[in-house]
Every structure is written in structure tokens, then in C-alpha cells.
Amino acid sequence: MSVYPHQIERLSAVLEREGLAALVATTAANVQYLTGFRSLTAAVFHTPHFAVFAPRGTALVVPGMDVAPIVADAIAVDHVLCFGRFVAQYAEGSSAGGRVRAHAERRAASPAEGLARALEALDVRGRVGLDEGALTPLAWRQTAARLDPLILVEAADLLGAARRVKSPYELECLARGLGIVEEAANTVIQALTPGMTEREAATAYGIEVLKRGAELVPISIAFGERTWIPAPAPTDRPLRPGDLVRLDLGCVFNSYHASLARMAVAGKPSARQEAAHAAAQEGLEAAVDAVVPGGTAGQVHQAGVAAVRVAGLAAFERYHLGHGVGLEPYERPKLAADDHTPLEVGEVLRVEVPYFEMGWAGVNVRDTVLVTTHGRQVMNRSTRALVLLD
After folding, report:
1. What is the pLDDT of residues 190-222, one digit of tens each?
2. Do 158 and 185 share a domain, yes or no?
3. Which residues partner with 165 through β-bridges?
């Protein structure tokens, strides 16, 4: 991923609106949004790293191990600062090796020291928005002490708001990821037969996702009585005639998250199964219809809940009916009754209606919806209908 003009415009608007001289990201998603860099080191070892966006340019502050991928992948930032020791050998005559070595020889003693150098290089003065998302209270205090006299303000919410409206590239990634999920889910649905276990179905789904060039996220496929568990891990429970099948599936494509929830039944559904699914589907359709620019997240929730109740599940309650999706699987806004956030053209929402009746069964249907100038566009291609397995 590169940083596109859209991101620059969104981040620059935050600086101007909030009176900030720079934004500093700490979480993986925010660092990637500011610079296009995705750190495997941070994902595996939870090492601290910073990305800086300022009017004079961008910077990355990373542990020594991360300099190599930044150089090898030609991450386009203006300054790279590293900290800590990382021992390596350098090939004679290699320009890439020489650049890595030059950064390593200028390493800072600590993450806070590296960030201070980056901000100095970008001539940042005054108020700085610092993403508190990946900082412990101690790390915040240490960083603030080293950056004095800069004034630090919390910026996680500011960065989250900037990321809400997606660029054309982001929309392409989200659409392709969703297509992969649907293609893989369809393959699994066609293969489901009595005797197949949840684990076997999940393995088959994972293979299909990987074949299509995406990354896996936790897979949830549940049969029968296990469908009422909100987040069931696959087991060796086999599919039996009459079972409901709940597929709660996703993937990551080019760092963007996609997900889907669909239902099937092994044979002819019972009246109770059919009614529960029909009510959830009515709720999803009403919630999606309520997605309009300028409407609120809470209105989407209210429309969905009301429709489910009218359709027959009078006691239906849900804290939220979805949320934004993008570089993270769970982004703002939350489609909750008390969220009065106005929806913006260009944001992508994961709209869902889960119904879990503990001890009986659970159903869930989920679509991905783009807010458009005139309303909304459902990005899914697969049917919401209850699939009847042969």
C-alpha cells in the first residue's frame, strides 16, 4: 500500500481543524495509513513504532530490524529513524545494504529519542497529536518528557475519523476482499454434506482464501446447537440432517478486512429455523435501507431492530448492528442506538443482524455497505437467503 492524495487530504484537514503541527501514529493500522508501512516486527513482537505526518513531510521511527523492509520495499517517507541494537552483516557494494547500514549507524537510544529526532527533522513545533492507541501510560509519560516543550494531545479518535472515508484504492481492496470471502464461502457451502465436521469445513474455507491471495482471520463455522455460541471456534462436531449452519467468515486483502455472515440448513428447515432467519433478514434489509449520507449510525440500528421485532422476534435486542470496516475489522462509527454520528459519503459499513437464542440456535446475516451520494451500495454479490443443502 502507498499513501494516496486522499489520505494526505484527510490528514491535512485534521491538522488544520485541530490546530496541530503534526500527527503521530502508534497502532499498526494508523502507521500504515500515514506511511503505507506495515510492520511484521510489531505484529509478532509488539515492538513500538511511530509514523509522523506533518506539513513538511513524513517519517517512520522503528526498531532496527524494521529498517531492512523499509529499504527493500522502498517505503516512500522523508525520514527513517531507528532505535535499539540489531546486529547484521552488509554485502560489499550493495546500495540497499549501504542504506540500511547508514540508518543503523545513526540509531537512537530509545523510541522516544527517535521520535524527537523525527519531529526535529520535520521542524515540528507547538501542538502534536499523539495516537495513544499503542502506548501504555508509562510510555506516554516517557515520550512526553522527551518531547517537551511540545504539547501532546490524544489523537486516536482524530486518526479514526480521518480513516472513515475510503479512497478509490481502499474501496478496490475492500471489494476484492469481500469477493474472495464470498467465493470461498460458496465453495464450502457446495461441499457441505452430513458427516463433514466444522473443522473440515473451516480448513476448506481457509485453503480457498489462501488460493486467492488473501490472508486468513479466525474462521467461525458452527453446526446445530453450536450456532447459538456468539463466537464459536470450529470443532470436530459433524454436520447432521436438520442442522442450521452458521458461517461467520472473513479475510484480509492488501491489509483491508472483509467479512460475511450467511446461513444454511442441512435439508428442509423447521418452521422455527425459517422464521428466525426471515426475521434477521428483514432486519438487515431495513438497516441497510437506513444507510444514507447525513443519517446517523443510531438510525441504522433503530431501523434494523424495529424490523426484526415486527417480523416476529418481539424480544430482539442488540447493542449494535455493525460498524465501520477497513484497515481494521472494527472501525468507527458503531451502529448503536446511542451513536449519533452522521454517516459520510465514501465510508464502508459492516451491517449485521445476529440473533442468538441461548440453548436453541443462532442466526446471523451480514452485508458490507458503501455510503454513496444518493444513499448506499451493497457491495455483496451473494444471496442473503437461507441456503438449503442437498
Report:
1. 999 999 999 999 999 999 999 999 999 999 999
2. no
3. 347
**Peptide bond before 241: cis, by omega within 30 degrees of 0?**
no
Query: At what angle are helices 168-191 and 198-211 packed, to 10 degrees?
Result: 140
Q: Residue ranges of the alpha helices (H) in 192-334?
A: 198-211, 271-289, 297-310
Helix (H, G, I), strand (E, B) or coil at 349: strand
Number of domains in the chain: 2
- Cα torsion 371, 373, 378, 381: sign: negative
- Give the relative orientation of helices 156-163 and 5-18 as an angle to the nearest 10 degrees: 140
CA distances from 272 to 37, 262, 312, 383 (A): 49, 17, 11, 21
My answer on whether 279 and 145 are in the same domain is: no
User: What distances in angstroms separate CA 21 from CA 30, 38, 133, 149, 157, one per listed residue?
Assistant: 17, 24, 19, 13, 17
- What does DSSP assign to residue 231? S
Q: Angle at Cα 16 formed by Cα 118 and Cα 347, nearest 5°?
A: 100
Residues 227 and 124 in one domain: no
Query: What does the pLDDT look like over 235-284, one tens digit per residue?
Result: 999 999 999 999 999 999 999 999 999 999 999 999 999 999 999 999 99
- The helix (H) or strand (E) run that includes residue 70 is helix 67-72
Backbone dihedral angles phi then psi of residue 372, each to the nearest 5 degrees: -115, 175
The CA–CA distances, whole Å, from 215 to 203, 208, 247 equal: 13, 11, 18
Write the DSSP symbol of residue 93: T
Which triple of cell numbers denotes residue 220?
467461525
Helix (H, G, I), strand (E, B) or coil at 232: coil
Residue with cell 466444522: 198
Same domain, 138 and 175: no
Q: Which long-range contacts (CB under 8 A, 24 or more apart) does 35-41 make?
A: 35/3, 35/60, 35/75, 35/77, 36/1, 36/2, 36/3, 36/75, 36/76, 37/62, 37/69, 37/70, 37/73, 37/75, 37/77, 38/1, 38/255, 39/66, 39/69, 40/69, 41/65, 41/66
Give the number of other CB atoms < 10 A from CB of residue 231: 8
